[in-house]
Amino acid sequence: MNKAIRRMWLMAVAIMVVLLLTLTYVQFFAANALQANPWNNRTLYEQFGRDRGSILVGGKEIARSVPADGDFAHQRVYSDSPLYANLTGYFSLVYGATGLESAMGDQLSGASDDQFYDRVVSLFSGNQPKGASVELTLDPELQRIAYNALEGHNGSIVAVDPKTGEIKAMVSRKSYDANALSSHDTNQVVAAAQSLNADPDKPLVNRAISGDLYSPGSTFKIIDTVAALESGKYTTDTTLPNPNELPLPDTTVSLPNYRQGGCAARSQVDLRFALEQSCNTPFAHIAMDLGQDKIRQTAQNFGYGQNLDIPLQVTPSMFPEDMNQAQLALSSIGQYDVRTTPLQVAMASAAIANDGVMMRPSLIKTVRSSDLSVIDQFQAEQLRRSTDAETARTVKDLMTSVVSNGIASGAAVPGVQVAGKTGTAEIGRDGLNDSWFTGFAPADDPQLAVAVVVEDVDVTTGSSLTSPSARQLFEAVLNK
Questions:
Q1: Which pairs count as long-range contacts for 245-253, CB under 8 Å and 24+ apart, including other chains?
Q2: Which end of the chain is more exposed for a tag (fewer CB within 10 A), N or C?
Q3: Between the CA of residue 151 and those of 82, 100, 173, 175, 465, what are the distances in Å?
Q4: Do 172 and 86 meet the contact criterion of CB atoms below 8 Å apart?
Q5: For residue 66, what is the enclosing H or E element?
Q6: Catalytic residue among 92, 156, 175, 218
Q7: Rounded to whole angstroms, how far apart are CA atoms 341 and 214?
Q8: pLDDT in the model for residue 441
Q9: Which residues are registered as beta bridge partners of 256?
Q10: Which residues contact 270 (CB under 8 A, 6 or more apart)?
Q11: Which of 181, 154, 187, 184 is nearest to 342 (CA)?
Q12: Could you give the angle at which helices 292-301 and 221-231 cross, rounded to 10 degrees?
């Protein structure tokens, strides 16, 4: 009798072990494959039935899940969506997830490794696991100022804290309403997507970090200046040739000097005047003298050609290879095949502001589980040293002169030293340009570094939009 009972007990234990092992395998090892199986409709229903975590800015929910009728228990809703859509992305029944809804999808859905304990508790309690909330580093006031500054124009504005890397504003216009793509009405979603994809202004593209990258124009002269000073061949007092036209080697064309400032007043200039007035020919001379390898290496030191996620994936900026001297001259003024993102340009200014140290940029401030315990929190992290502190301080001084004595005076804030650099990128569309400003303030204790780009404008319109937009952001930070 005892022997029979023992056998039954061992069999029961064996069955329990097999069941637990099978459950463990299905829940944790085979989960990804099962979820990815196109025949698994339960995954779709589970995702849209789940109480997904919120995305917050300044304590306010900009993306949240609300109870819904019909096949799915919850509906994703976005507040002030055009202001944030290129960051949040959308959570679509038809098209899946984009933006932070995708990049932070595991945390928002409760499926991340850090939420393992919550899932175990939910498994035994029978409750559906709740997603974590994600608080962004954005300053809502700066975000709205940046968005409004681009009213009526396509472009982008990025603002970062140069000391920490926290992204304080990231705007891309033209924008869109993510609610139209997150509806449970599939016909409505398809119609909205078709309209957005057909829009030539490409509202679904986050211009700050992706899409058709921009020519940086004369903002790239910051890189040239660093390369010149690092080489030891140039100082701020070095005399440079400043012809109105520079014949490009082995071509029949010439590079014209910048005609909107005071470059034509002097045939020879020092580095300070060349940067103040954004003269083209002195910087082309420097680049051809130093060679493309030095300019490219300096660009790479500031992040060109390198992958980055914030956690959104950032398209790497590009500096061309295997150029002849004429192409190098054009590249030195941010033309030819030089391509960049507004985030990259803001990061370069931030590195100069931070004594040559570039901090890793991030949009994520805090991730909290459903019980409000902290899963992850922002920690400032050095990404790279872009240049030495002495060179950075010299460039900072030169950029301050660009605002106080040069063509970026529109960014000036009374009583505060502002460092900056303008840029005009010729794009070959009806004589219009992409207009740039980048810089930081206060120069002696930088709180904010910015990049502003406005597409398809003439020089006068661009100047009236870029530098003053940066000034508004600086003033908002300084008045806090």
A1: 245/281, 246/280, 246/281, 246/284, 246/285, 246/329, 248/325, 248/326, 248/329, 248/330, 249/288, 249/324, 249/325, 249/326, 249/329, 250/324, 250/325, 250/326, 251/326, 253/326
A2: N
A3: 12, 24, 8, 11, 10
A4: yes
A5: strand 60-67
A6: 218
A7: 6
A8: 97
A9: 245
A10: 236, 237, 238, 239, 240
A11: 154
A12: 110
- pLDDT tens-place string over residues 239-264: 999 999 999 999 999 999 988 888 99
Contacts of 145 (CB under 8 A, 6+ apart): 169, 472, 473, 476
H-run or E-run covering 376? strand 374-377
Distance, CA of 457 to CA of 465 (rounded, Å) = 10
Convert the pLDDT of each residue in 30-52 to its tens digit. Answer: 555 555 544 444 555 666 667 78
Q: Give catalytic status of residue 218 as yes or no.
A: yes
Q: What does DSSP say about strands 155-160 and 448-457: parallel, antiparallel, or unpaired?
A: antiparallel
Per-residue tokens: 340:
């960049």
Torsion of CA 95, 101, 103, 104, to 10 degrees: -140
Report the alpha-carbon distance of residue 437 to residue 422 in Å, rounded: 4
Q: Which residues contact 335 (CB under 8 A, 6 or more apart)?
A: 215, 217, 425, 426
Average pLDDT, integer, range 296-316 = 97
Rounded to a whole number, what is the distance in angstroms from the first to the last CA of the chain? 83
DSSP 341: -
How do the residues of the chain divide into helix, strand and coil, expressed in percent and rounded to 5?
A: 45, 20, 35
* Token pair belonging to 247: 């014949």
Q: One-letter amino acid identity for 191?
A: A
Place of tokens 């500096």: 319
């010729």: which residue's tokens? 426
| Rounded Cα distance, 84 and 170, in Å | 8
Q: How many CB atoms lie within 10 A of CB 428?
A: 7
- Residue-level length of the chain: 480
Task: State the chain's maximal CA–CA distance in angstroms.
Answer: 111
